[in-house]
Amino acid sequence: MTLAPLPRIDFNTRKALLFALAAERLSAYYEHRQWMTDAQGATLAGEWLSRSKLQLPLSERRLLSELSDQFARQLAETLSREAGLYAAHEMMEALDPNYQSAFAYDMLEECERLLHENGVTE
After folding, report:
1. N or C: which end of the chain has fewer CB within 10 A?
2. What confidence tens digit (pLDDT) does each residue in 28-58 have?
3. How far apart are CA 114 and CA 117, in angstroms?
């Protein structure tokens, strides 16, 4: 018996994964004052994808991890601590598809821009 390959993910799923990784990074930073490594981000992405029976090559998971790190650090550098805590909270809440947030929507658009800038179009 051969197992069918896991389905690959589309652009919108990549965008959502980038957003979720950035949210996790910001949340961990404000909670523990420590940044997640790129390897930790890539592993986390792989775990999330496997739960949904999706896959993404390690090189692409690493790219998303690196982009999420750049994005999260940029947010943390440009926001006050209070605003950063709010941003992390809003992004984590927005991981629930029933939660509506204009801020999170703007951050999702920024994730889309980052992906396009880095050649991720599929």
Report:
1. N
2. 999 999 999 999 999 999 999 998 888 899 9
3. 5
The Cα–Cα gap between 32 and 51 comes to: 26
What stretch of H or E contains 103? helix 102-117
pLDDT at 86: 95
Model-level pTM greater than 0.85? yes
Q: Which two tokens stand for residue 51?
A: 């739960």
* DSSP line for 37-102: PHHHHHHHHHHHHHHTT-B--HHHHHHHHHHHHHHHHHHHHHS-HHHHHHHHHHHHHTTSTT---H
